[in-house]
Amino acid sequence: MNTNMHLINGNGVAYANGNHTNGNHVNGSNGHNGSNGHNGVATLTMTPPILTPARQSPQRYYDPNFVVTDEYRESLPDLQNGPASLIQGSPVAIQQVGIHNFRLPLRYASRTGEPLLLETSVTGTVSLEAHKKGINMSRVMRTFYEHKDDTFDLDLLEEILQDYRTSLGSLDAHLILRFNYPMVNESLRSGLFGYQYYQVALEARMDRFGAVRKFIHFDFVYSSTCPCSYELSQHAILERNVAAVPHSQRSVARVSVELNGFLWLEELHDLCLAALHTETQVMVKREDEQAFAELNAAYLKFVEDAVRLLHEQLDPEPRIKDFKVIASHQESLHSHDAISVLVKGVRGGFTPEVDPSVFATLIHR
Fold this sequence. Notes:
The chain is an alpha+beta fold. It is 22% helix and 30% strand. The chain is built from seven helices and twelve strands.
């Protein structure tokens, strides 16, 4: 044995030059050469050394010519689709898991017959069973992209949901498309035209039995003039000859509908306009501004009035199975908003509960 070689056995005892070191004992135990008094000859129990191969640092280099083969792809780790043993936390089912706000331009049909290409934000989710670690997130996007050249409507969403369930092996699937939908609006008196943009969401849900529910969420922005403030202003003018103006404010109604049949977004807009009348304007000259003041005086409304007026228009429409209206009057008098929620009252349909965060999304700028 080379006397310059140092080995460490499994118990951390080093041997060198025939002598051993054990704790604080050097060159034998109790002053003797070697151990146990055997004339300086140590009794060695040799444990094979643990040899660690030298590891080179990885190259800091991107190879643009590297080609992924099927064999290489199969060797890649895939923790997201791993076994149940990798689950962290409670091994319970998850109702929705997926991705939110992946964007792409999609084509939509319009009542004018001209298709519209609109930037769309997509939220796609599926359910996850208790024994599964996770889903392949990229499949949510890849499956959707297979339909990117189609013309989108609620019926197409049903087809995509079925694809989600098949490709991801899930029981339930959920899809929401959000976009700003343009309509050309005419000014009140000047004859000018301008584009008004409406925040729209198309939503479809498919349960584990294949039953599908489809919804349209449509934001209608209008002006609301307070009836009480109007009467008080008139009182000041008539009784004291003091100029006064009622307070009015930009307001938003989010109308959510579940359909029995096909309904154009333009038709849903027309129902909202027929109910509330005082939609905000795009192109305005002096005669339009005066007309808008007259329009607001003709259709004064509290927030309670707004949801009831919408109910009056939506309820008789046979193509609308169910609806929910959330109105927010963003007060110019108060430092808070006035809100109201009304549902049609269909069994198993919309409920009046509203997540508090929803009201923050009703502020349109």
